[in-house]
Specification:
mainly alpha; 8 helices; elongated
Length: about 170
């Protein structure tokens, strides 16, 4: 998730303060990527520096002045370009699992056990995410479904690799 463009997109919905952005972030994205207040303000500083937002003013308060920000035309263009650009799928969701499998075979370790352990961990994670969906709002259900489909793809890869492990073991040995 691109924190910079996501925050910029939130500002595209209307001017706001850093606190407002953090509140909106937490409402929509905290379940997928937590964000600290400090990161909000450092990102706002970079967006301001890059001309993607402008500061509308500041209000004095008990602490530091509250600064209100608005997206610029260049900022809107950046958000629109980001929205229109398809997300590039990763070459491999679990390249580290593939590497572990090859290394296990190279070292004469039990690759079947490795895949069984990973399958069990993935299945447990699926159960946990599925429980979160119970009684959740649509926003949380959609995020959970996204995670579940990725885990499901990993499980299919694990099963396929387990079925081909004898052949892979022979290739690694040669």
């Amino acid at each position: 998730m691109d924190t910079r463009l996501t925050l910029l997109g939130l500002l595209g919905a209307g001017p706001g303060y850093g606190y407002d952005l953090k509140t909106n972030w937490d409402r929509w994205f905290a379940g997928t990527k937590p964000l600290a207040f400090g990161q909000v303000y450092s990102t706002l500083a970079r967006l301001l520096r890059d001309g993607l937002i402008v500061q509308l003013g500041a209000q004095a308060g008990a602490g530091p002045d509250r600064k209100r920000y608005e997206i610029t035309a260049a900022g809107r263009d950046a958000v629109e370009e980001w929205i229109r650009s398809p997300q590039v799928p990763a070459d491999s969701i679990r390249a580290d699992l593939f590497a572990k499998t090859i290394i296990a075979l190279l070292l004469g370790e039990d690759a079947e056990r490795l895949l069984d352990l990973q399958r069990a961990a993935h299945t447990a994670r699926m159960r946990e995410i599925t429980r979160r969906k119970d009684g959740a709002d649509l926003h949380d259900v959609l995020i959970a479904d996204h995670a579940l489909f990725h885990i499901e793809a990993d499980l299919r890869w694990i099963d396929l690799t387990a079925a081909r492990l004898t052949e892979l073991r022979e290739q690694v040995r040669s």
